[in-house]
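Record now logged underneath.
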Amino acid sequence: MQEVIPLRESSDELTYSLTGEDGSAGPYYRDVALLTDEVLVKLHEDQSIAKFGRYIALRKLETWNPDIYALEWLMIGVLWNVYKARATVGSVAAGRLLSSLYSLKSRGREARKAVDRVKGIAGTTVLARHQKAAGCLQLHSLTRLIGWLRASGEFEQESRRLKIWLDFLRGLPGKESAGILHRAVQKASWFERRSLECLGSYTSKVEAYIENNRQRLKWQENRIFCSRERVEYHLNMVGAEIMNRVFHAGFQAAPEKIVFLPICMRNKSAEACRAVQEGPGYVCRRCSKTCRVHAVTAMAETCGSKVLMIPHASTAFGKERIPEGKVGIVGIACVLNLISGGYKARDIGYLPQCVLLHYSGCAMHWHPKGIGTCIDMDRLHAMLEQGEPSSNPE
């Protein structure tokens, strides 16, 4: 791994950026909070969310805020609009086969390499096939969509949540379930237009990045991940805002807090970095005063919090459940990992919050040399010190 290069030399190669010319992300956080308010009002106008909430409560599946269910209903429509042409008849079988294969990654480095090769081949061939006419979203096509999402290896958490919606819809009269799905697609189309108006300035280079890197990503395991559309960025931005609001009270009350940082925030190569491994991550040894990981570690310590540097999003969490209510985490991540990371953290027992990277720059996915990334330090400090959300929850 080479030394990361500064942002000013690679600004044209970013997919998104939260900062303006002054380097501040303040306007972004204001814009996403306002859009989230609007989205939640729009979604809760429909009784489908409340009905799904009653279904969840009756079966005692969880006790989450209805705003999470609103996000999931919107997610159904957004992911259908984006991937409907790829959700073919074979998606269900492919989903079962490939998702079971992906579970072998944990068996070691060589197994991970082999699985990634298969994932790259599948993402460029089988999963890239388009059907001519997808038609409207119905129960059978939602089943195929969930199969495709599982097969892609990029939507493990989302596909699990949508499977619960599928079970809920199957228990309704056909006309009613069809109406709920139809309205989800309508809301998603509205969201795509409205989010582009409100957040489009932060994602203006997504299409150019995809086009410029089409050949580079061919046969790569991250092809689907790095080729996701602008509306998916916007969905994750709003989704992160919703999750921060919903889970902030639990995070604030947790006696222990940990910050998970991505390795793309360090300013040294893997060989030069002196961080030592601890559990799923690495602890900074402060070998460079200019390193952002050093800065975050020092600041977090003043708030009584710990910092772990995580090599990859897939290794951020262990397999064992955390005692409920004991540990709050702040996940520092790029946009496309926000919703899945929030679900995974909560499923294990963490009480999650997140702070977005100002832009994506890791050498593993986004840039051949790597671009040093950063965050809003004031926002992280306020989160650790007070546990305050960006806006009051419902």
Q: What stands out?
A: Residues 7-23+247-386 form one domain. The first strand starts at residue 256 and ends at 262. The radius of gyration is 20 Å.
